[in-house]
Specification:
204 residues, Rossmann fold, 35% helix, single chain
Length: 204
């Protein structure tokens, strides 16, 4: 029987958000009784005839309806697009109406993460934009508390709304130590909250 899992769902154009997702998975792995499940979404094309392969050439596989509906917690990641989430992630979330109607996601913890090319490129507004559909789903939002020293020590990315990364003008700057720490902290916190929120009353 498989363990309950934290779904780490992301869209990554240049690889930075994918690297963050892997660090979040490391944080989840620190909590016994919870697994990490990495999933991505296909790009959105303006060409109506364009199609994507059923399985990506590299990286995580595409998220299914079951992956989304059956998770115990969710970490949602996207690069910023004019201070908002990327269209590919918005398109996926727009297709989760069935879960909204059924209340599948209610009371599950959720967190968000992002990467930008410029240091002040809309990190916090992007994180806030990703929170909105999760709140409509009835999820319990999980940020990063200031007990995480990296929040006050970082000179790269990192916010109380969720982990962030400064990728640089060429989008090739690796994650800093503080950015890695904060990603892992989110994964660990989501996993711990998922276990607490879904424990049987006798176990509490």
């Amino acid at each position: 029987m498989s363990l309950p899992y934290v779904l780490i769902l992301y869209y990554s154009h240049s690889g930075a958000v994918a690297s963050m997702a892997q660090q979040i998975a490391r944080g989840v792995a620190q909590v016994a009784g919870m697994e990490a499940r990495l999933r991505t979404v296909p790009a959105v094309s303006p060409v109506s005839e364009a199609t994507a392969p059923k399985v990506p050439a590299a990286g995580a596989v595409y998220c299914t309806e079951a992956d989304f509906a059956e998770c115990s917690a969710l970490a949602l990641g996207s690069p910023t697009r004019f201070g908002n989430m990327a269209a590919a992630m918005k398109y996926f979330l727009d297709g989760t109406g069935a879960q909204w109607l059924s209340g599948t996601m209610i009371n599950k913890p959720a967190g968000v993460f992002t990467s930008t090319s410029s240091l002040h490129g809309g990190q916090e507004s992007t994180l806030l934009s990703m929170m909105l559909p999760l709140l409509h789903h009835g999820m319990v939002f999980c940020g990063l508390p200031y007990s995480e020293a990296g929040l006050t020590q970082t000179s790269t990315g990192g916010t109380p709304y969720g982990p962030s990364h400064h990728a640089g003008g060429n989008s090739n700057q690796p994650l800093s130590d503080h950015e890695k720490q904060l990603c892992q902290a989110l994964g660990k916190r989501l996993a711990m909250l998922a276990l607490l929120l879904h424990a049987k009353p006798a176990d509490r």
